[in-house]
Structures are given as structure tokens and as C-alpha cells.
Write a structure and sequence with these properties.
Blueprint lengths: L1 H30 L2 H8 L15 H11 L4 E6 L8 E6 L10 E5 L6 E5 L9 H11 L3 H25 L4 H5 L3 H5 L3 H8 L1 H15 L27 H11 L3 E7 L8 E7 L12 E5 L5 E5 L6 H14 L5 H30 L1
Antiparallel strand pairs: 1-2, 1-5, 2-3, 3-4, 5-6, 6-7, 7-8
Helix pairs in contact: 1-4, 1-5, 1-12, 2-4, 5-9, 8-12, 9-11
Length: 355
């Protein structure tokens, strides 16, 4: 009777979350290759033959400000070489009334605008951005975030009940014994071989969305985006960055968030080459600069408390953004197993209903 109850819970949880798990696993299997696929939609250009020198951040910021004099220049992904464009995130009233960011690509040597595209709402020109938002909220705002958290919990319940129900057959499947394979239970075989991966995805996914079960999530937000033109840079960024690297030679900056007033801080996100492999190469560490370009504070991954560090590692584990291409391929293949579990589970339920 007890086992029958667990089977019912497992079946209901699987069926209830099936279509969402299918959508999330398929989108997740693609998002593992987000940077690789998105590179296809980024502008292609040939570097100049006159040398490898690239423009300064200061010059590119000035060019962007001249192109969008009434916009907020929020951030810039720095060009690492003459084959990679500067990528500015700009809020301008001419696009979505300034509520969404434009992504402006700047040639690293000439300063010319190579391409302009929208953010996660731009399906045609920014498909991976659109897919990422779908995976994170189904493009349904806070309702979508809540659904994601709820179905992450349901998916976790289906995995845990599945472990209990099929616990006696786990070793049999792993050891390739004929007894289980003769039953032709594809659902059980896939579930066993992808058990640890799906358990990890279920736990990390739920942990990332746990905030939707807190009362703060339901509090109203009266914030309204206002477009105030960004000021000129308060200091020479490239000089400040050179000084920064003298003090922190292991640090490499990748993304800059510009201060919008003298009281604000310019944040340089990047990573130290001494960080563990699990941490992001672009956003693990951050150095804050004041209005004179001096370092006001640092927030390195090894300086933060254990709880925050766990959240960051949890996110990296869930998204598979570590270890290079081999890890991405493994994540993508095992990610598809969640989709197959939804399909085979549904077919198994239909088969049992017929009986």
C-alpha cells in the first residue's frame, strides 16, 4: 500500500510537471552552448591589417555617447582582441521606451557601429538571449519565475520518489543485468543512468528559485525606469585599469558597469586566474572604482562568506559553465534525458491506463 502511494505520487508529479520539464530540459540542453551559438548572431568582421592595437574603453564610451547622447550607457563587455567587438548595453528611449536594453557592437579598431540588436525580447536577432529568458521565466515575468520554482520542486519530488520506488533495481541496471533490460522499461533505464545528473539539476534548480517561496517575492515593486543621459566618464578608465592590474596582477576584467553619478561606483567584473575551475571567468570577482578611478573595495570570490559562495557554485553547476566543451556535451546529452523521462513516463502512464 505504501509503495502504491509512492507510485501514485511519482506518476502525478511526473505528469503534472512533464510538459514544463520537457520545455526546460530541451532549452537547457541548447543553452549549455549559449556563447558558442550566440557567436553566430554577433557581427563578423575582419581585423585591420595595420596592426593588433585596439581602441581604449574611454574612446569607445565616447563614441557610444555621441551615437546615443540621450541614453543610459549601462555596461560594456570589453574586446579582448582585434577580432572581438566591444559590446555596449544601452537604454535609449527610441527602443521600448527605454525599458529594455539595446546591445550595440563597436569595432575594436575603427570604432564604427557593427550591429545593433535588442535583448531577450529580440527573438530574431538575439535567439539565445530570448531562449535564456524563456528558460528562466517563460517570458511571463514574476508569474513565470513562480511557475519555474514550483515545477522545480515537483520535478525534485518525482526524482526522489522514483529513487525510492526503483531503489532495488538501480544496481541491476547499472551492472547491465538482463533481468531489467528484458522488461523493456526504457523509463527506468534512462532514469537510472541519468539519476545523479537529474538529481543535481533538480536540487540546484530548486535552490536557485527558492526565493519565489519567500514573502519578499510578493511585495510590490514601484520602481520606474527613467532615462537620464549618462555623464562623461569621471576618470580615464584605461589608466585606472592599468593601476588596478598593478595592485591585482592576477585579475582580468571582462565587463564594466559604469557609474551614473560621482557618488556611484564603476564596477569591473572579471576573475582571478587563481580561482578554482568551477567559478565564472567573467563574473566571479568584482573591483569597484570611485569617481577618481581609485579602488574603493573588492569583492573576490574567496573573500565572500560561505553561503554566497555556495550560491555561486550552485549556479555554475546548474548551467554547466565550467570545464570547457567536454562538460557542455555531457550536460547537453544528459539534459535531454529529462525530456526523455517526461515522454517515456507519459507513455508508461498511458500504457497502464489501457491495462
Amino acid at each position: 500500500m505504501k509503495n502504491k502511494g509512492l507510485v501514485t505520487v511519482h506518476a502525478v508529479a511526473g505528469l503534472f510537471a512533464g510538459i514544463f520539464v520537457l520545455a526546460l530540459s530541451l532549452s537547457g540542453a541548447i543553452l549549455v552552448f549559449q556563447d558558442n551559438i550566440d557567436a553566430v548572431q554577433k557581427p563578423f568582421f575582419l581585423p585591420l591589417k595595420t596592426g593588433n592595437k585596439i581602441l581604449s574603453v574611454d574612446s569607445c564610451y565616447t563614441l557610444a555617447q555621441q551615437k546615443y547622447p540621450h541614453a543610459v550607457i549601462s555596461s560594456c563587455a570589453v574586446a579582448e582582441n582585434n577580432q572581438q567587438a566591444f559590446s555596449f548595453s544601452i537604454y535609449d528611449s527610441s527602443y521600448k521606451n527605454g525599458t529594455k536594453a539595446l546591445q550595440v557592437f563597436v569595432h575594436p579598431q575603427t570604432g564604427s557601429i557593427l550591429k545593433i540588436r535588442g535583448g531577450s525580447e529580440d527573438f530574431k536577432n538575439n535567439f539565445m538571449g530570448w531562449l535564456s529568458k524563456f528558460h528562466n521565466s517563460f517570458h511571463a515575468g514574476k508569474k513565470g519565475e513562480w511557475l519555474l520554482g514550483f515545477f522545480a520542486l515537483v520535478f525534485l519530488i518525482s526524482i526522489l520518489t522514483g529513487i525510492i520506488i526503483y531503489r532495488k533495481n538501480i544496481i541491476t541496471v547499472v551492472l547491465f543485468k538482463k533481468a531489467v533490460w528484458k522488461k523493456n522499461n526504457l523509463h527506468q533505464i534512462i532514469g537510472t543512468w541519468a539519476l545523479l545528473f537529474n538529481l543535481m539539476i533538480g536540487i540546484t534548480g530548486f535552490w536557485m528559485q527558492r526565493y519565489v517561496f519567500k514573502k519578499e517575492f510578493y511585495q510590490s515593486n514601484d520602481w520606474v525606469n527613467t532615462i537620464k543621459p549618462s555623464p562623461s566618464l569621471f576618470f580615464n578608465f584605461d589608466s585606472a585599469y592599468n593601476n588596478l592590474q598593478k595592485l591585482h596582477p592576477n585579475f582580468t576584467g571582462h565587463v564594466i558597469y559604469f557609474a551614473q553619478s560621482k557618488k556611484g561606483k564603476t564596477a569591473v567584473y572579471g576573475s582571478n586566474n587563481t580561482n578554482a575551475f568551477i567559478h565564472s571567468k567573467k563574473f566571479a570577482d568584482v573591483i569597484f572604482l570611485d569617481s577618481t578611478g581609485n579602488i574603493s573595495k573588492t569583492r573576490f570570490i574567496n573573500e565572500i562568506d560561505a553561503a554566497d559562495r555556495y550560491d555561486i557554485i550552485n549556479s555554475q553547476l546548474h548551467m554547466g559553465k565550467y570545464g570547457g566543451m567536454p562538460i557542455k556535451i555531457i550536460y547537453s546529452l544528459f539534459g535531454l534525458s529529462s525530456a526523455l523521462l517526461s515522454i517515456t513516463g507519459f507513455l508508461l502512464w498511458v500504457k497502464r491506463r489501457k491495462k
